[in-house]
Amino acid sequence: MDIEESAQLKDQLRDIVLNTKVPLVLKNYSVDWECFEGSLLEWCTSFDEYNAKKTAVFESMEIMDGATPQWERKRKKTEMTMQQFLKNYSGNNAMHWSAFQYKRAFDLPDQCLKGIDFESFGFSKHDRDFSLWLGSKGANTPCHYDTYGVNIVVQVYGSKSWLLFPPETPFETTRIPYEESSVYCLENFYAPQPDKLTYYEKFQYYAHHCVLNAGDVLIVPRHWWHYVEAVETSLSVNYWVPLKEDINLALDELLVKHVVESFVKGEDERVKTYLLNPNQLDELGHTPTDLFNLFKHALDRSADINCTLWHEDYLSKADTAKLISEISLNIRALNVMSKEDYMLLLSNNSKRHVVVESKEDNAINPTLEVLINSICAPDNIARVKLEFYRRIHMQKSVN
Questions:
Q1: pLDDT band at 270, cuts 50/70/90?
Q2: Which residues form the signal peptide (predicted)?
Q3: Same domain assignment for residues 226 and 140
Q4: The domain containing residue 26 runs over which residues?
Q5: How far apart are CA 263 and CA 266, in angstroms?
Q6: Is the overall model pTM greater than 0.90, yes or no?
Q7: 154 with 31: CB under 8 angstroms?
Q8: How far from chain centre, in Å, is Cα 172?
């Protein structure tokens, strides 16, 4: 392929990423990233060699703990080297899983990231804003959607199961645990309660599924729900393509932040740990003025037409489908799962539903949890923002 053909392919792929309305899988897509030329063991050995802290902090969770989604607040922290991780979790009989996941590039040794670049997808200016996900069999993220961006996921080693649902799926949303930019649902796809499988049947009409193997790439459109689980020890790299719409959505997230932090203020650690994801605990301490200044900054930025972010939705559905069919890549759109496959997946997962005594029971009053989730429901937050814009516009008209 000559330079001109290569540039055209990148442009086509970028257009597809920014305009697809359904998840896409690219099979055996070569990214040629130098750091992953060898085996997973070789990459882990290199990580241990260049990691200044010598050990890495992994999170772990018992396989048979599925009374609720496996929220991050329920996991234990363990320090070990990458090579120790591979040794301890090389088999499939472990009673718990372990993961070193959602690690941003700027927190990792540069030598272990050589060559990682999303230019082949048409996005050269990513400023190393990508993340690595390493986990043993069973490592998972509860079902959620990402507030920002279009997600490009490159499966480097091993394989992962992805269960995806479109934005309109009627899930019961929750902002508890609160994590900025992640909206969770209460549905437990890791281990659904066996006697409630009929409740989950209604989601089959929306469910899409794939198993990503090494060398595969998944494109997740904006606001698609996804439940992800490692089928075996695996490593993947993802990049959220920043969109113009993200600036507007940042206002929604800051409104939620206002609400949640107001409920957390003055509470004991048990309540804080229940309401907030661990990575949010370090961000507490904002005054109301601090929070307003963050909101005002996002508001000012939303009016900046010079922001270097990507537009989306500039191609019609028909033009996008035509482009996908014509591009010289092994790419396919995911289809809705059959009822048989969907229920078989949930039935197998339900075998992990074991009710265990939890230290977090009664951490907060259940009615308070309902109140927070009612206020922070995405549709309600969007209405507050629209009302804010209406009043701001009226204020400017009067002045």
A1: very high
A2: none
A3: yes
A4: 3-243+316-363
A5: 8
A6: yes
A7: yes
A8: 18
